[in-house]
Structure formats: structure tokens, C-alpha cells
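Possible race condition, two jobs.
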Amino acid sequence: MSEPAIVPVLRVGFLGSGFIADFHLQSMLGVRNVQVAGVYSPTAANAAAFAERANAAGLGPCRAYESLEALAASDEIDAIWILGPNDARVEAMRTIHAVVTGGRGRLLGVACEKPLARNLAEAREVLRLAEEAGLNHGYLENQIFSTAVQRGKEIIWRRGVPGSGQPYLARASEEHSGPHKPWFWQGERQGGGVLSDMMCHSVEVARFLLTPPGADRGSLRLVSANATVANLKWTRPEYVERLKQMMGPEVDYASRPAEDFARGVLVLENEQGQKAMIEASTSWAYVGPGLRIQIELLGPEYSLELNTLSTGLRVFLSRDLQGAAGEDLLEKQNAEQGLMPVLEDEAGIYGYTLENRHMVECFRTGRRPIETFHDGVAVVEMLMALYRSAELERTVYLSEGDLAEYVPPVARGAYRG
């Protein structure tokens, strides 16, 4: 069997031009053998502006395309990064599938932002379409590529595990004061609330840390899920009105809320029959300096911990300095005065740079990424088990049946907080 041909420079097309696309664009400055060659957005002006930013960064030449079909069929595009809203991902993958199976374009791979889809049926469909089209695929979970997570896992499994045994508990939390765009707040479009939006990060980085290096993530079998969801902040009357002012009248948490707090416990079992647990917590109700990610890994004679707000760089700005509101110090920044942490390389610290470096090299050389759509499906299965547990107010065991037809209450319009 011949080795796959190596593409000298992978020409990437972006589907989406918003907040997360800018993170990926920034991270590409640290990636070799890549060109951001195209972009499609339903809003043409946004696509044109994104192409200008890519060209100004020296990552092009990049041009805006008039449709996803045109982007996928272009002989100037080798791979597509799906970065649009959750409710558009299945249809996007169907379009890409039709182009490739119809013999148009020369796509080698497709990568998709988290979560892979809004529910398990959609996630499995995205995976099926990618594999039926013969595309290499990568699931864009940036936190497993965080430099601290990568380094921490390497040390724990090299120095801690051989002398005392495998880790048995991973804790992960992610909290901030709320998403940037209206669709994130809308359960039907997003697929849920904060559990879907942010716990997808937490459960997967925890599963990654618990899995032996080089082992398939599926070597840890999901046994059960227990979860609680709640509305702590954004259903209070004054915050219902504030949210409408920020996001528009279609985001009405008096009548159609999505959860702004979630906690969950997952029990897994390894191939030796040993239990491991994931404890996750997420919130849109945290007001601190900005986004806070906390990760821990515990084993018999060792532990690991990470807090993204415990930065090496901090600045103090006195009350006499009246700066404009922004996110120039860190993501989801909430203040411009006082003692503030600074993330000097957000794209690197959060994992986007290593993530894209890995995906580009895998697509370019024909190798399978360490994080694929199979992992994206597994993440959605964990999320659906947690939502089902919260709805039933009891522990859900995976042996009870497949969750393929399950849709969380907030996504089916039945959740009232």
C-alpha cells in the first residue's frame, strides 16, 4: 500500500467569520505549512472583512466565497474548518458531502468546532457524512491541546502512574459571565444552555487526562451520568431585561430560558474494570476578571492542577484610569481597573495553536488526528446522558438504552428554568 501524498501547504477554508474564527486565525500564525485561503459567511461583508484580516496577517492570499458549495468545490481549498452555529452543522456537512461525492473539489479533510452537533443523532450523522465522503476529520476541542494540559499529562503519566497506578478522578470547570452572540443563548439553536456550550470542553479534557497516552479514548467506557442544571442569574427580572438589551428581544429568559449553571458527574470504566470519575461544573453566572478554566487530575500518589486566571503576568490600573471596555487582557473580560490577570498568548494557552498545528499536519500528511469526529460523538453522548439525568432527577446508566433519539428539554422548547 502506497503512502499518501504529502501536501506541501494545506489550504484551509473557514466556514464562519466570527469570534471563534478569529481565535483560529490568530493561532494560525504559529502553524507551519498552512494558508488560510478562503472563507464563507452568510453575511458577505463579514466574510470580506475576515479575508482582509487574514491577508493583513500574512496568512493568505485569502478570498471570500459566495457559498459553502463554492468554497468546498474550489480547487484552491484542501480542507474546511466548520466554525458556524451549532444548528447549521449537519446541513454544512451535507453540503460538503454532496460536493465531494459528486466529484467536485479536492478536499482532504474537515475539522469542526465543539460541540460536534446539538444531539447524538445529529453528531452521528456528521460523522457518517464525513466518513462516507472519505474525508479525514478532526474534532476541534482546544482544551486538550492547551500547553499546560499537554505538559501536565505527560509528566503525570511518566512520573506518577508507573509507581502508583492510573488516575481515578478528573475535575474540570469553565465559567464566565455569558456568551457573545444571541444564538448561544437560544436553546433550540445551540442545543442547550451552558451544559452544551461549555461542559463539552470540561468532559473531554477530563477524559483526555484520564486516558493512557496513545490509547484510544474509547478505552474508557461510559457507565453512568448524574447532573443538575439550574438558572441562577439570567432569569432574575433585572437580568432578563439586560439580556434583551444586549442580545435582542428574541432572547427572552422570562419565557424561554436555557440553563446558566450545570454540574455533572460521569463514571467511566477502563479495560481492567477500574472505575474513574469526571466531575464537571460550568456557569454563565461567574463575574470575575474574565473566563476561568480550572482543571485537576488526582491519582494514588499525585495530583495536577491548573487555573487560567493564575497568570504570571498581571497589571494594576488605578481608579483614575477610565479605559474603554474590551477584551484586550483576556477573554470575557469584566473590568478595566484594579489588579487584572493578563493572558499574553490566549490562542496558545487555550490550545488553539497546538490544535491547529496538529490538524494541519495530519490533514497535510494523511494521518489520523488524535481528536476525531468519533470523539465528538462520544462527547455529545456524555452531554445527552447528563441532560437526561438532570431531566429525570436521577442517575442515568448507559445500559438503560441508546440516547440517539434524546433531545434535551431546553432544545425542544420544554424547559422553563
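Job #2 (started ~2 s after job #1):
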Amino acid sequence: MVSVKITLIGVGQAGGRLVDTFLDIDDWIVDDPVEGACVIDTSQAYLERLSAVPDAQRHLMGTHQAKGHGVGSDNELAATIARTEKENIITILDGLPIAESDAVLTLAGLGGGTGSGMTPVIAETVRDEYEIPVYSLGILPHNRASPIQTINAAKSLRSLRQQTDHLFLFDNDVWAGPDPDKEVYQELNKQTVTAIGTLLAVVDQATRESGRRTDMSTEDGQGILSTNAFSAIGFATGPTTYTSSSGQNRGLLDRLWPMSAGEATQDTAKADESIAPIRRRQVSKVLSEAASPPYTLPVDSGKDRTVGLFVIAPEPYLSDADVDAEKITTVGHVNPTYIAVCEPLPAGVSDRVSAICVLTDDSFDRVAELIRKANTLQRDPSWTNEAKMSDQLIDTLENSPNDSKATTTDEDDDPEPLF
């Protein structure tokens, strides 16, 4: 079994930091999912602050317009730069192992200029050039963000939904608190990319092995990321518990009075009998934590939506824990649509038991509120000029001659366009 491989494209300051974090992680509970990665920015300073991204994969764009100093909050300018330098983007893509990857994941903060403006154009270009799923991780700005950041995020969400197969969202307000410092953001970045990377691997495994210890069909596995929708994620992990005789060491006793075959069998049975309840409780604990708020995005209760639960643990651990769909549905704060039980990849090497909860919907209250707030701001004359900075972003994308490649959706279910 080969784990899923993804190519990362970070755009702007936040996207670059997320890619840096992806490349820094060395304790994946699955095979390292990163096949290749790059960062694109309009600020030379932000590119120079990266540590894990190779120099050859740090790309500065818009040097004529932005002079290497970034575009500020002007996402129209960022989109224009990306359109003007599309051949440069294609060259960057050609230098990535996209042909050897199973998917491309773009990463960006949606409140700034470069990430919110360039990412939809880059995603569109990937889809034009390659037959490969394109996913996106978007970071929503704080509720206390400036009006132009709110407008940028709302318009970028609308554009990204048209140009990607699926959009994962992370809301800073849920996790960062009122006054986050650098260490808080670093830890949040690690948690976020760990959850996303692990999810992509286990969705792929569950789809390929849809009949194994799961009530998820192949269509469910493919559908979670092929629906043109938004997802929030819950993630929890903890160390596995190994105390059965297969892992015991009696030390000097083994050398002086080695156990007979009968004694060893009895010892194994007693140890396994004692450890199984511990493992069941731990599986239930990580499932409950993953399936309970907070998620990466606030989730309004009482609404029907697609909910996937994934349990990841070594096979012996899962056998002892006796994980099955009926028991899993009794934990957490959600009603799962489907459940999958997966081994880490490569099989059996992980010392973690983990769970992921994926909640997928056409919209969430947080997204709808952001759209409403952006519409209100644009009707405020004092922000008319700043709103105009974003005016052409959707039009630029929607008027593309290659629009037919975008995933089609029911327009009535999309977040309302700003114009």
C-alpha cells in the first residue's frame, strides 16, 4: 500500500509559513504525505524568513508592480500579477512533482492581498495544466480584522470554491485567542497541517480498502473531497498502549526460569485481557475529542451535514480495541455519515492512536456571517474605495475562457457573491 502524495503550493505570508511547517514535521502518523512543495509571494522579506522550503522553491512574483515589497491588502493587484505572469506560474508548476502526486493543496491566508488574490488564479492554472484534484486550505481572518480583510476573504472564498475541488477552512478566532503570540501560531500551524496531511492519507486508504472494517463505501471516500464544498476538521491523538506479552520483557526471570509454552499462552491471555479495556477506552477518548468542538471552524449544531470519522491505529491495537461502526456512533457530538478504520502507513509502525472528524457542508454560519459582513461593508460609502480594490477578482476568474474546467455547483447553495 502506497500512501497518498500531495504537492503543496503556499501563497503569501501565511501560506508560506504553513508549507514551512509541513516540511518541518518529522513525526507523521502516516507516511510523509509531501511529494513536493513551493511558496509564491510578492514580498522578498517573507520568502527570506522561510527555513524549511528550499531556496529554489521560493518564488517572487510581481517585481515590476510590487517591487518585492508585497501588495498590502490589494488582492486585485495580486490577481492581476498572477494573470499577467501566468507563464511564470506554469514554469513554477513544471518544476514541481505534480505528475507524481495524487493531489495539489494550495495554502493561503484569505485576509491579505497576495494569498487571497493569487491563490484562485494559481488553482485555476493547475487545473488547466494537469488532470489532478486541487484542494485548498484557507485561513479566515479574525472577526476584529479590518474591513478590507473581511472583503478580501469573502471574495476569495467565492473564487476558490469555483477553482478547487474542496476547501478546508481554519478560523483564527476559534483557536488563536484575543492576543496570540508567535509560539501560539506555530503550534496552531503544526496542528492544522498534521490534521490535513493525515486526513488526505487516510481518505485515500479508506477509499482503496473500502470493505475493510468500515461502513464507508468507496463513493463516500471519494465524495468527501470531490464535493465542491467547505470542511471543518476535528483531530485528536494519543500514545498507544502496549503491555501484552508480545512486548513484555521479564529480564533476569526469563533467563533463570523461562516460561513453558503453556505458561506463556496463559500469560499472554491474561495480559491481553487486561489491556483490551484500556485500549477501548483510549479509542473512545480520541474519537470523542475529535468529534467534539472546537473544530477548525465553528460548527452550528442542529443542521444535517456530511460527517466522516476516521480512526488510525496499528492493527493489533484495533483488534484489541474492537472498534466497530456501532460503537463509534455512540461517541462525540456528531451523527457520523460514515466511519473508516485505518492502519498507519507504513502499516504497524505508529505508536499513536488518532482520530479525525470531517464536517462537510455547502456553507457554515461563520462563512455566511463573513459574507453578510462584507456586503454590509461594501455598502458603506467610507469603504467604497477599498472595496473597489477587490472588484475585479471574481470577474477576472469567471471570464476566463477555461471556466468549463471548474467544478460546477448549485448557485443557490453558494455563498452569495459580493457583487
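The chain has 17 helices and ten strands.
Logs attached separately.
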